[in-house]
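Re-run requested by the PI after the first attempt was lost when the workstation crashed. Everything re-entered from the original request form. Ligand of interest: magnesium ion.
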Amino acid sequence: MPANLPAEAKHKWREASQARRPQEKIAKLQEFLSLVPKHKGTENLRAQVKRKIAILRREIAEKKRKKAGVGGPKFFVEKEGDTQIVILGPTNVGRSSLLSILTNAKVEISNYPYTTKAPTPGMFQYQDLQFQMVEAPALMEGSADGGAWGLQTLTSARNADGLLLMIDLSRDSVEQFSLISRELEKARILTRKPRAKVGIERKYMGAGLKIVMLGRLVDCTSKDVERLLKSYGIHDATVRIQGEATIDDVEDAIFEGTVYRLAIIVANKADVPNAAKRIEQLKGFVGEEMKILPVSCKAKFGLEKLGSEIFEMLDIIRVYTKEPNERFASEKPFTIRKGSSILDLAKRIHSDFYKQFSYAKVWSKRLRFSPQKVGGTFTLEDGDTVEIHMK
Ligand SMILES: Nc1nc2c(ncn2[C@@H]2O[C@H](COP(=O)(O)OP(=O)(O)OP(=O)(O)O)[C@@H](O)[C@H]2O)c(=O)[nH]1
Ligand SMILES: [Mg+2]
């Protein structure tokens, strides 16, 4: 259902997105909210804006606390390492236990519920990659409405690169997973591949609107998309349409409402009686859509697979770069989306680099001989070493 906002509301939205100071942004968002008609079609939007306001308020409070030198629970954890993975789940499933096994973070483990009260990070070394693991405070009924640590927990999930959805096999597995799914869905965090993806990248003034059609529009034309964007004051942007997108998906992208996060299920306490039965029940419920990894933090099994499972979930490869006049490749890999080409890598190294691209040399076990001279469209694989030559 479209939001169908009046022009003055759209105008206010534009002002809100241009506001720099958090206080001013909050004021504009509140004015915007008062101009949004209350009906089913605007329900999600209103919830999103309220969440935005709540987040801004927390950020202001956090800044004040920092200035005053008073500590307090962190709202979310700044990214470090190659990727950030948030451990999400109901209380007592063993999130702290997992964090303390994988990393050297100091956390309190206890059979009392709700022990962890703030997002807590630790670094997990997997081969030559660093996964920053963050234990989010427990998820519960109503987290998405901001109850208890709901806002902290779900903002952490929103900011992550991937999620470990953790449940406990000493209790009803389907019930716990349903709770996680429900709260994530309410917070507009999708864990299943969406039917469509719309990305809006703002450009400099005068660049104009460019629509890149990688999928198709099902209930509107490109002209409608342009009209909608312009009605929100977006005149300079590149819009990428993937999958089967509707005009609602485009509007949702304007409000940055829905995000898609990769996820796997970690089913902990596989050492308890009846664990096997509860894994089967969960498998029946989840189907093929998400990987389930049974582990036991207590008996220490299943955990050795976690690194490779996270790596696989992220759908990335590692590429090592080498300067033409150096003998050895970089020790630290670049992480890049699976299926990327040499040119994609060149763009990642430097936004203008690829323009002067001439050719590359690739070292790889899968090639019959190395190095091999290749062009920009050559598809990279995990472990490749690349030497780029410029014109
Ligand atoms: N049997 C069994 N118990 C476990 C396992 N892992 C953790 N526990 C126990 O489960 C309880 C909760 O563990 P925590 O790691 O504190 O759980 P949490 O998810 O961080 O809980 P909160 O932060 O309080 O929400 C503790 O008593 C742990 O000893 C496991 O693999 N098997
Ligand atoms: Mg904990």
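Saved to the shared folder this time. The pocket of magnesium ion (ligand 2) is lined by residues 95-96, 115-116, 135 (CB under 6 Å).
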